Every structure is written in C-alpha cells, then in structure tokens.
Amino acid sequence: MNNNLDFYIRRVHSISGLVPIGFFLLEHIFSISTVLAGGGAFDATVAKLAAIPHEIMLPLEIIAIAIPFLFHALYGLYITFNAKNNPGSYGYTRNWQFYLQRMTALYLAVFLIWHVGYLRIMVKGSGLPINYEFMHAYLSNPIVLVLYCIGIVAAIFHFTNGLFTMAITWGITVGPRSQAVVNKMAWGLCVVLAIVGVMATIRFAA
Questions:
Q1: Rounded Cα–Cα distance for residues 54 and 43 (Å)
Q2: What is the per-residue pLDDT across 141-153, written as a single tens digit (0 to 9) for each?
Q3: What is the CB neighbour count within 10 angstroms for residue 201?
Q4: CATH number of 3-205
Q5: How far apart are CA 135 and CA 137, in angstroms?
Q6: Which of 80, 143, 145 is nearest to 106 (CA)?
Q7: Is Metal-binding given among the entry's keywords (predicted)?
Q8: How many CA atoms, within 13 angstroms, populate the side-chain half-sphere of residue 12?
Q9: Of the candidates 20, 94, 104, which has an alpha carbon nearest to the alpha carbon of residue 63?
Q10: Rounded to two decimals, what is the model's pTM?
Q11: What angle, rounded to 10 degrees, do the helices at 3-16 and 142-169 form?
Q12: How confident is the model at residue 91 (pLDDT cuts 50, 70, 90)?
C-alpha cells in the first residue's frame, strides 16, 4: 500500500475507534450496568432506547455504528495479520499490549458476529423483546456467560489501549513520561470499566 495512503487510513482507523465506536461501547456498558440496580432498572433503560423511532434508529445504526465498525474491523484485521508480534522475545509491557491489541481484535471479530447476529438480527429482528428476563435466561448458560465476560473485557482493553496508542499516533504524547502517564490512565480506565462490565454481566445470570 502507498505509504501516504496508509498513513491517512491508519489515522482514520485510529479515530474511528474512539468516535463513534468508543462512544457506543461506553453507552453499552452504561446501559447494561443499570442491571446492578435491578432487572426493572435495566428494562427501563431498554424501553427508553426502544422509544427512539425506527426511522431514526436504523439509519443511525447503519451510518454511525455499522459502517465505522466494519471499516475499523476490516482494516484492523489487515493490521493484525501483517503485524510482527514478539512478546516472547522482548517481554516488555508495551510489546504485550501490542500483542493483546491484535489478539483481542481477533476474538472480537468472532464474538461480535455472534453477539450482533443473534441479539440484534435474529432476536430483535424477529420482534422478540430483549429485556431482563430474556438476558437472564440467555446468560444463565455458563458457557455463554464466560464467553460474554471475555468479550466485554476484550472490548474494553482494546478500546482503552487504543486510546493510549491513539495519543501516540496523533502526536498528543511525544515523550516517554507523558506516554507512561497516559498508559497508566488507560490501564486504570480499563480496570474500572472491566469490573463494571463483568459485574453487570454476572448479575444477569444471578
């Protein structure tokens, strides 16, 4: 690929991970976290989202979520299969982060096809309500629960580590000290969001 073209595509890929995909992830975590206040609180959150007219929601999902996600995912997989991962050779933390960024991309590619294909297309598309009762039955399967917990942690790590690498890519952090600070902040955000996401997922199965 032409170096100049690759330069710009990588930056579009980087920013698309934050806007709108990152915002959607944060909204998703907030929505499922309402279950920690009880099934009724989650159903109320779902009802608010369902109240958005279909004529608005469908174009929004396609333009603001599906298209950016497909671009980010496809180009991300291209980067993954062309990356030289070497955590075993060097063992530095950032090399492991580089490696895990690629591995979570692969897991998420499969996980999101399953997640979106089943819940958004098959279940919601058929007119069945996605409420606490449905999610409780769905996530009571221990295999599904574990795979979802892994998927949530993978998505959160991929997002927060992506924030760190985006800060470097866009020249926001240029020195080792600023990069170290942003990296620690990203890890802190990752831990907080992962705890909330996993607790909420387990709460559905309780």
A1: 19
A2: 999 999 999 999 9
A3: 22
A4: 1.20.1300.10
A5: 5
A6: 80
A7: yes
A8: 15
A9: 20
A10: 0.91
A11: 130
A12: low
Please tell me the distance from the alpha carbon of residue 25 to that of residue 28, in angstroms, as a whole number: 5
Q: Which two tokens stand for residue 159?
A: 């997002």
Q: How far apart are CA 125 and CA 57, in angstroms?
A: 13
Q: How far apart are CA 175 and CA 96, in angstroms?
A: 20
On the question of a cis peptide bond just before residue 20, with omega within 30 degrees of 0, the verdict is yes
Two tokens at 115?
């997640």
C-alpha–C-alpha distance, residues 32 and 196, integer Å: 9
Rounded CA separation 190/156 (Å)? 6
- Sequence-ordered alpha helix ranges (H) in 34-141: 39-50, 54-60, 67-82, 87-90, 93-115, 132-139
Containing 65, the helix (H) or strand (E) segment is none
